Amino acid sequence: MQILDTNVENKIWPLFRLGFRVFFLGGALFSAAAMLLWILTLSGVDALPGVSNPIWWHAHEMLFGFALAIIAGFVTTAMQNWTGVPGIKSWPLAIVAGLWLLPRLLMPLHGELNGLVIAMDLLWLPIVAGMLARPIFKTKQWRNLFFVPLFVFLTLLNALSYYAVVSGQWLLSERVFITTVLAISALITVMGGRVFPFFTARATNTPKITPLVWLEKLSLVSIWLSAFTWLLLPRSPFANSLLALLLLVSGIAHLVRLARWNYQVTTGAPLLWILYLGYLFIPLGLLGLAAALLNIGISISLASHWLTAGALGAVVLGMIARVSLGHSGRKLEITRTIVVAFVFIILAAVTRSLLPMIAPSMTMQAYHISATFWIAAYGLFCWVYWPILSQPRADGHPG
């Protein structure tokens, strides 16, 4: 429990009292709006007048706009619990959130080549990294230090994505985006191992599964290696085969890891089964990328959407629904509306990942249907959680 001055805390607008509030709500709203702009663009509407490459914009904004906002909100909030040092809040948080938001708003109008947009978008994550480093060094909790170089690495990937679009190198853009997808998926596996079995044991009154050290090392090391190898390994038939083997090993390892977790007891707990269903898309996506490298029935773009529309979309929605309740002093109980949102995000994932494989002629319809389900899912979250995230904690405590 944080020992904070309640009088000082009450003077802060609730939205800026902890990182999860502004970044969860902002990220969810932005993802729904960005997906709407994407549907309009696919339909021939000039919804992105300043953007020269809408495909680049879609990939970039869903990763570096949506996903990293959620990650920043989660980690800045969790770091307070992990270290006991009060988290980023008030005007520093508002400044960082503003630096995140402005590029999202300006890019559709002024384009991805605008210098001011690029500068602001490359600034906010390093600031977050510095704010995370302070409590870690203060408490010497070196276990959590990896978030700092991770945010720096993601900043470098963001810079490389801008370099690729400025120089017109689409193959480099694709390489950077897939690397980012793999890195975010790897982060999900790290956090999943920390919290999914714990959440399950606590909610279902069942024993917490003891991890197998060798399996943890194999699954985590292989997926991180896959990310770095995808970025750095030169493309050749031999290199593709080597990377495919690594992805295959990682995919199987994560399937085994997931199978060991006590997912069977989660069927009556939506806040749990959404996490496990989302996690399932990670090994499926890894195996899909391996198949794509070997030219076996799937493209790299389609395989990557098992990780984005699937794992990222579902796990993020489940985690922000749960974390928002816990950190706002509320019981971990969700309404039917949020259960419907969970169903919608799974439908979005399956439609985007599976329909183009089994019915290639319906690929464009799959894009529209999936995006519509995504908008509905995250729109419902924003509708239900807006008062939760924008108002003081229900129990009267700071945060």
Automatic annotation (TrEMBL):
Annotated protein name in UniProt: NnrS family protein
Membrane among keywords: yes
Domain of life according to the entry: Bacteria
Family matches, as Pfam families: NnrS
Record's keyword annotation contains Metal-binding: no
Transmembrane segments: 20-42, 62-79, 91-107, 113-133, 145-165, 177-200, 212-232, 238-259, 271-294, 306-325, 337-359, 365-386
Entry keywords, A to Z: Membrane, Transmembrane, Transmembrane helix
Protein's organism: Oceanisphaera pacifica
InterPro entries referenced in this protein's UniProt entry, alphabetically: NnrS (IPR010266)
Coiled-coil parts of chain: none
